[in-house]
Design a protein that fits this description.
Layout: E1 2-6, H1 16-22, E2 26-29, H2 42-54, E3 60-65, H3 71-75, H4 80-96, E4 101-104, E5 116-120, E6 126-130, H5 132-142, H6 154-180, H7 192-199, H8 207-228, E7 231-234, H9 253-262, E8 268-273, H10 274-278, H11 285-292, E9 296-301, E10 303-306, E11 312-315, H12 324-341, E12 349-352, H13 372-391
Parallel strand pairs: 1-2, 1-12, 2-3, 3-4, 4-7, 7-8, 8-9, 9-12
Antiparallel strand pairs: 5-6, 6-11, 10-11
C-alpha cells in the first residue's frame, strides 16, 4: 500500500517539507484554484507536479483529489457538451503528466457535512462531529426547509426545538459556519438566504434523477479514461444520507454495485472511504471492501463512532466502529491478487483520512479534519497495522 497524504496546495498551512517528515511519499492534491468546469492546463499540472517533486523525501503526486464535477453535470442542465469536453481534456492533461488516479464525488451542493468542527475529546484535543439533533435544528428552524419535518422522527424534532431554543445567536452562527465549511473550496460561503437559493434548483430532484445524470457522466467520461489509462474512483457520500432535500446515491453497497455496473470498466472505480461508508448503520465496510476490491483504486482510512439517533463522531483510526485491522487485511489480500494477476496497479494508495486536533494542531488553522499531528498519529497506527499483518 502506498502511504499518501492530502495536501491542499500552496495555501495549505502544512508544508511539503513537513509532510516529508511523516514518511508518506504519495501526495494527494488538486488544482483548487481553477474554477469548476474549466480545463486544468497541462502547464499548471506540470508546475504542481514539479513543486511536489522538488520537496525533500521523494514525494510524488499520486492521486488527484478532486477533479470536480460541475453542478450542471449533476443536475443535467446547461452546456454539458462543453463541460464534458473540458473534463476529458483535463484527464488527458493529467495523464500526459503521469497522474492517473482521479478521485471525484457526485454530491450536490455540499462536499461533506458536519455540525461541529471542534467537539472536545476526553483527553484533550477535538474531533469533527455530526449531530442529528443540530442538523434537524438547522433544517427545521434556520433553513426552514419545506418538507424537512417529514425527514425527522418526532423525538428528533423535539430535541431540535430544545436545542434551537437555547443555542442563541452565537450557537446558530457557529452551526451555519460549520455546515458551510463543507462547501467546495471554489464556492463562496452562503448565509441562510443564499443557501436557500443554492438549493432551489434542486427542488423535486430525486435520487433516480441523480443516478441518471451520474450514468450520463460515466458514459461521457469513462471511455476517455480507459484510453488514457486513468483510474476514476468515486468518493462515497459524506454523510451517507440525504440532507436538506438533496439526494445521495453513493451511500450503500447497493449504490456502489449500481454505479460500477453502469460502466463496467476498470476505469470506473471506487474510493473506499471507511469513514463515510462507516457512518451508515447498515454498512459493513469490511464486506464492502471485499466485494468491490478489484475496483478500489484509492482508500481513505478513518473511523467513526455511530450513535442511535444517526449522529456520529470522528474516532481515532483504530477505535471506531470499523475493524480497521480487518479492513486493511482485505486491502492487502487484494494487492496480493493483483500482483499474482500481473496488474500494473497492484498497489493501492491510501491516506490517513481526517484526524483529531492534538497538541500543536490546536489553533493552527488547518483545513477542518486535516491537522498535522492527528493525521500523523493515524498514519503511524495504520503503518503499524500493515507491518503486523505482513509479518503474521
Amino acid at each position: 500500500m502506498i502511504e499518501s497524504w492530502r495536501w491542499f496546495g500552496p495555501l495549505d498551512r502544512i508544508a511539503l517539507t513537513e509532510i516529508a517528515q511523516t514518511g508518506a511519499r504519495g501526495i494527494v492534491t488538486a488544482l483548487h484554484e481553477i474554477p469548476y468546469g474549466e480545463v486544468w492546463p497541462r502547464e499548471a499540472i506540470a508546475a504542481r507536479r514539479a513543486q511536489i517533486a522538488a520537496a525533500p523525501g521523494g514525494l510524488h503526486w499520486a492521486v488527484v483529489e478532486s477533479l470536480p464535477v460541475h453542478e450542471d453535470i449533476k443536475r443535467g442542465a446547461g452546456d454539458l457538451a462543453r463541460l464534458f469536453a473540458n473534463y476529458r481534456q483535463s484527464l488527458a492533461n493529467l495523464a500526459a503528466e503521469g497522474v492517473r488516479i482521479v478521485c471525484y464525488n457526485f454530491m450536490p451542493v455540499l462536499d461533506w457535512t458536519r455540525t461541529r468542527l471542534d467537539a472536545p475529546l476526553p483527553g484533550g484535543g477535538s474531533a469533527l462531529r455530526f449531530s442529528a439533533v443540530e442538523m434537524a435544528a438547522f433544517e427545521l428552524f434556520m433553513l426552514e426547509r419545506e418538507g424537512a419535518a417529514e425527514d425527522y422522527p418526532p423525538a428528533l424534532r423535539e430535541a431540535a426545538k430544545a436545542w434551537i431554543d437555547t443555542a442563541g445567536a452565537e450557537g446558530r452562527t457557529r452551526l451555519l459556519d460549520t455546515i458551510m465549511a463543507g462547501l467546495p473550496g471554489a464556492f463562496a460561503r452562503y448565509d441562510v438566504a443564499g443557501l436557500r437559493e443554492a438549493l432551489r434548483p434542486w427542488q423535486g430532484f430525486t435520487a433516480d434523477d441523480l443516478r441518471a445524470t451520474l450514468v450520463r457522466f460515466l458514459a461521457e467520461i469513462v471511455p476517455a479514461a480507459e484510453d488514457l489509462g486513468i483510474r476514476l474512483c468515486i468518493h462515497p457520500d459524506d454523510p451517507p444520507r440525504p440532507l436538506m432535500g438533496l439526494p445521495r446515491i453513493v451511500s450503500t453497497a447497493d449504490d456502489i454495485a449500481f454505479l460500477l455496473a453502469a460502466a463496467d470498466s476498470p476505469a470506473n472505480g471506487l474510493t473506499l472511504c471507511s469513514g463515510s461508508l462507516g457512518a451508515h448503520p447498515d454498512n459493513d465496510v469490511v464486506a464492502i471492501a471485499r466485494r468491490f476490491g478489484p475496483r478500489i483504486h484509492f482508500a481513505h482510512l478513518r473511523n467513526v463512532k455511530k450513535e442511535a439517533d444517526g449522529s456520529f463522531q470522528e474516532a481515532a483510526h483504530l477505535e471506531g466502529d470499523t475493524d480497521m485491522a480487518a479492513l486493511v487485511s482485505v486491502l492487502l489480500e487484494e494487492e496480493k491478487r493483483r500482483a499474482e494477476a500481473g496488474r500494473a496497479d497492484r498497489e493501492i494508495p491510501f491516506r490517513p483520512d481526517h484526524g483529531h486536533e492534538l497538541l500543536s494542531d490546536i489553533g493552527r488553522g488547518t483545513h477542518p479534519g486535516y491537522p498535522l499531528i492527528g493525521r500523523l498519529r493515524g498514519l503511524a497506527e495504520l503503518r503499524g497495522v500493515i507491518a503486523g499483518l505482513r509479518a503474521a
